[in-house]
Amino acid sequence: MTATSATLKTQTASAFDVERVRADFPILRLKLDGKPLVYLDNAASSQMPQPVIDRLVRYQTTQHANIHRGVHTLSETATFEYEEARRKLQRFINAREEREVIFTSGTTDAINLVMHGYGRKFIGAGDEIVLTTLEHHSNIVPWQMLAEERGAKIRVTPINDAGELIIGEYEKLFNERTQFVGVTHVSNALGTINPVKRMIEFAHARGVPVLVDGAQAAPHMKVDVQELDCDFYAFSGHKLCGPTGIGILYGKAATLERMQPFKGGGDMILSVTFEKTTYNAIPHKFEAGTPPIAAAIGLGAAVDYLSGIGMDTIAAHELRLLDCATEQISRMPGLRIIGTAGKKAAVLSFEIDGVHPHDVGTLLNQEGVAVRTGHHCAQPVMRRFKVPATSRASFAFYNNMADVDALIAGIRAVQKVFA
Asked: Would you say the C-alpha torsion 217, 219, 221, 223 has a positive or negative sign?
């Protein structure tokens, strides 16, 4: 255990009441075939606490209208609440300015926005884009589309047997043709926490901008985009106790100013004639059409809720759960943990000898335990470890030790069936 891990665990023991938090999540009272729900699929989507549900209901029942331009009371109220949500997100990630926060439909949409708005303008034939083996498909496919269109080349940072990036190999990929870097902050398939600050510093020393996929980091740790100094940072609301269909793209204001819009339509313009359109200022230049107003306000409520607990406290509790589950699974015969990095967030991927992951997931579900099975939209990772898929248990701050015990008991039940 590292000194940081020990400190985090001490914080957890003294400052966090998980049972009090669980009471805020009505879905955790659900029973499946008479068995209490043990929800361990948080990397795919987290659950929503009652204060966020209540905030969505209050907006829909007392504040709903379209935003911007309207002069009636409901429109002005909805506009204020929508922009206040932007300010909450700015504080949550410590962006320098609120105009650096763009609402998107999620991480995938945010990355595509950067590909179209920045990549198609500044990346051309012969240029190179550096990615990593750990990327989610959403941070691979858009860049492949761009590379095919523009004649650019993708270069990939390899990982070691623990699922950690080989930083020396990352640095060797850079040359005079390197124009962009995309890297995940935390691997959704393995839980590996990447040294993104060091990677950004190395890229910036060579004048190369960096996009960080923060979908699995923002829900589990404190994110400070000014400290990281990343050019772009993206994450999704539904993974941090917010609604689906909402996320953000953070971008440095100067970089966003240089980019072309991804989508055209209402609200992203200042004036339109058939001869010429003048685009609106950022962030509105990138928010065409009626946005997901309720979802944005709900996301603002979600980050209020998380901030009220404290991201360090959340990270501490989740690390304790992860360590406990890892220790027990490591001792179980016939099991292999996929991804044993020294620094991990709350993801535990594993395989059971002789049992397909889909069978694992099905049998665990019969015990009330919800995990994810498959390639997790990270097929290059699966190929690296020579497995078609894994079973993935992913923890959130509202999980408890009883959930870990249920997972272990469920795995034993699976092994018994296939004995």
From this structure: positive
Single pTM value for the model: 0.95
Tell me the pLDDT band of 69, cut-offs 50, 70 and 90. Answer: confident
Cα distance between residue 101 and residue 246, in whole Å: 12
Distance CA 131, CA 120 (A): 17
The answer to whether residue 10 scores a pLDDT higher than 50 is: no
C-alpha 30 chain-centroid distance:
26
Among the options 230, 241, 324, 377, which is catalytic?
Answer: 377
CATH code reported for the domain at 53-308: 3.40.640.10
Q: How far apart are CA 264 and CA 116, in angstroms?
A: 12
Q: Which of 130, 100, 61 minimizes the C-alpha distance to 294?
A: 61
Give yes or no for residue 190 having a pLDDT over 90.
Answer: yes
Average pLDDT of the chain, as a whole number: 95
Q: What is the pLDDT of residues 398-410, one digit of tens each?
A: 999 999 999 999 9
Burial class (CB in 10 A: 0-12, 13-18, 19+), 73: exposed
Domains 3-41+310-417 and 53-308 share a fold: no
Report residue 14's pLDDT band, with 50, 70 and 90 as the boundaries: low
Q: What is the fold of 3-41+310-417?
A: Aspartate Aminotransferase, domain 1 (3.90.1150)
Domain residue limits, the chain: 3-41+310-417, 53-308
Are 47 and 27 a contacting pair, CB within 8 Å?
Answer: yes
Tokens representing residue 207 in the block: 């004048």
pLDDT tops 60 at residue 34: yes
Give the model confidence (pLDDT) of 326-338 as tens digits: 999 999 999 999 9
Q: Which residues partner with 392 through β-bridges?
A: 349, 372
- Reference 166, options 189, 142, 192; nearest CA is 192
Report the chain's terminal Cα–Cα distance, integer Å.
34
The per-residue pLDDT for 308 is: 97
Give dist(CA 340, CA 350) in Å, integer. 10
Report whether 149 contacts 98 (CB < 8 A): no
403-415 burial: b if 16+ Cβ within 10 Å, else e: bbebbbebbeebb
> Is pLDDT above 90 for 15?
no
Active-site residue flag, 377: yes
Q: Which neighbouring-strand residues pair with 154?
A: 129
> Are the C-beta atoms of 234 and 247 separated by less than 8 Å?
yes
